[in-house]
Amino acid sequence: MSIIVQKYGGTSMANSECVKNVAEKVVGTKRKGHDVVVVVSAPAGMTDQLVNRAKEITDKPSGRELDMILATGEQISISLLAMAIKALGEDAISFTSAQVGIYTDKNHNKAKIEEIDTSKINRALSEGKVVIIAGFQGVTKDLEITTLGRGGSDTSAVAIGVALKADEVEIYTDVDGIYTADPRIVPNAHKIDYITFDEMLEMAGSGAKVLHLRSVELAAKNNIPIHLRSSFTDTIGTYVTDEEEKMEEVLVRGVAHTTNNAKITIANIENTANNIAYIFKTISDANINVDVITQNYINKEGITISFTVAQEEYDRALTLSKRLGKELKADDVYGNEQVAKVCIIGVGMKSTPGVASRVFGCLAQNGVAIDMVSTSDINITCVIPQEDYSKAVLAIHNEFEL
Amino acid sequence: MSIIVQKYGGTSMANSECVKNVAEKVVGTKRKGHDVVVVVSAPAGMTDQLVNRAKEITDKPSGRELDMILATGEQISISLLAMAIKALGEDAISFTSAQVGIYTDKNHNKAKIEEIDTSKINRALSEGKVVIIAGFQGVTKDLEITTLGRGGSDTSAVAIGVALKADEVEIYTDVDGIYTADPRIVPNAHKIDYITFDEMLEMAGSGAKVLHLRSVELAAKNNIPIHLRSSFTDTIGTYVTDEEEKMEEVLVRGVAHTTNNAKITIANIENTANNIAYIFKTISDANINVDVITQNYINKEGITISFTVAQEEYDRALTLSKRLGKELKADDVYGNEQVAKVCIIGVGMKSTPGVASRVFGCLAQNGVAIDMVSTSDINITCVIPQEDYSKAVLAIHNEFEL
């Protein structure tokens, strides 16, 4: 018998009607003869609501106590879904992470799963039950409650899928798959049927916020396929897999973008490994997340460093960079609070030269200035002025006939 | 160092201001040099809200899944209170029942505490922390989540007090103590400073719904004093204890009443032990709770049985009784959907004869007909017409100069 892990997000659990709808889907899968394990998120909005309750008490809730309150959202979801499935005549049982034994490290609010005890799950499955597990949460060996960070339920689902050697992990969400570009910008963007893990990792890291990054890493590492699909329709979504033979041979799989970026440049500092390490250590110690980094060679001694951060970190990052610039005797430190990032992703690029030059040429033809460029085997990222982002995405989508 | 267990109910946790108020009280106690363990209920209204969410999914939620959802209310309370106490500069840590090890039997929705592991609590106390524990919930040895039934947090608090050999259990609520009668009926009713466990048991069983019955039984059995007091003032409330030397010597400690009663009579059936057992087994099997029972001798062979039930059970109980009456060849079966129960309670009655006759005389003088009478050592219960209950309570309160 095949084991299917299904994960339903907050919008799928938003109210009683939604929960009943999910129950129908689960029961449908069960009645096709599969063993079904369901991982659920908190009802939409509840996590924010709980964070707000904590914030009403104190500006700085302790990580442990925040996890204590946040874990309740998923507990409500699992219970309601178990009731709804039983009401449809299938047996079901809900488990918190602590009950299953989804063991994590001790990093509250951003814990990593270390081990999953599958004995309770397997026992319940062998009794013919649908097993419903609270996503997002974990437990340490000392029974401390942890959470995996926003979007963590995807990771819970994949980790459980790996532990159970499931045939497939279905991630149900409010979109019906991964698109070649944001359909709000590119009207003829189309749904991608198959995408490689590597491409999905680049997409997820580049603004396509449909899957938690860590869940894709985990699926890739364990080679377990993810089927990303809509909980509101029955259509096939996007398969994330390494079965490249099933895929269309394309140069570019898709174009992702983010607009919430700001850029900072530290101009002309002494070119030593120490200096560069010192800059990024200082910024990371201030808990600021750096995204794209480029480093330009000026002359034998001098280099210029540019990097992007989220817009809400811009002020802090700029202040810190100015201090660093002074310390390291930079010629200048300056920033741009509003830039966009456009990422062109496709495993086909690996073996086909000239993609980057087509991207640059296409952007130039459309009058889009390129601020920064950063590339990997399968990803070309361009940082551009924010106002040009939709023009850029549209132009590239057309250029590669996606 | 003395250990104090404090229990705060739902109204004390209703919103952020309330939680902060509770935190102030807890910190005040801690700073007087006590070790403090706090047991909390779900925020007021939340348990009902969760039950309603379950009812939206299904008419008959499974007991296990209902416990799963209900346990979240207390988990929210403990987390918020821990945050609020830490914000005031004292260290605090919250625990669910599963984390502590408050082990119960497997009876979902009405579980009984069997054992409490005090090791985590004692460790945290020895580290100078205020320990906050979720009331109402428990866990089985298999990590199944259970709940103790409505009002169960009182029982959690007393059980934890017993396990820790606490000096006192303080139950904070929205009233400032036990009164000689309901002040809404008897304007000169006054707060009782000390009351015995036995009297409190009779009061709790007779309509004074300030303490969960099982919590009083547990405190009595282990001789641990309960201090019932208001979370909105600092005044001393009512001590429930067996230290009779501290108490006023009174004949009657108080008058309790309930108005939600209905009475059923099965007239003239054959007087055999089997018949009586059969009647009450049948009624109990239908999950109907019987309160007062009286049995009248008619002649050598015949008896008449009367009993009271809650008004919402009246229709079912009457239908059942009519069936039983037919089966047992009763002369008649009839009922009264609206009766009241007045209970006169005091350990002084044990050693003083004539209290019952004073009660009957006083009711007669005030034109109150007595339907049923049932007495114990320290309790005289009269079932009377519902419309007369306030007249009866007032008259008895005056008669015994409470």
Can you describe what's shown?
Two copies of one chain form a homodimer. By secondary structure, chain A is of the alpha/beta class. The first copy, chain A, folds into two domains: 3-174, 3-Layer(aba) Sandwich (Carbamate kinase); 255-399, VC0802-like (2-Layer Sandwich), CATH 3.30.2130.10. The first copy, chain A, has helices at residues 16-31, 46-57, 63-87, 97-100, 119-126, 152-163, 197-204, 213-222, 273-285, 314-327, 355-365, 389-399; strands spanning 3-8, 35-40, 92-95, 102-104, 113-116, 130-134, 137-139, 145-147, 168-173, 194-196, 226-230, 238-241, 254-270, 290-297, 302-310, 332-345, 372-376, 379-385. The interface between A and B is large, with 36 and 36 residues.
User: What portion of residues of chain A is helical?
Assistant: 25-40%
Give the number of helices of chain A.
12
Order of helices and strands of chain A: EHEHHEHEEHEEEHEEHHEEEHEEHEHEEH
Structural class of chain A: alpha/beta
Report the radius of gyration of chain A as a whole number of Å. Answer: 23 Å
CATH superfamily of the largest domain in chain A: Acetylglutamate kinase-like
User: What CATH architecture of the largest domain in chain A do you see?
Assistant: 3-Layer(aba) Sandwich
What best-fitting shape of chain A do the alpha-carbon axes yield? globular
**Which fold name is given in CATH as the topology of the largest domain in chain A?**
Carbamate kinase
Biggest sheet record of chain A = 8 strands, mixed
Interface with most residues: A-B, 36 and 36 residues
Average pLDDT figure of chain A: 91
Number of DSSP strand runs of chain A: 18
Oligomer: homodimer
- Beta-strand share of residues of chain A: 25-35%
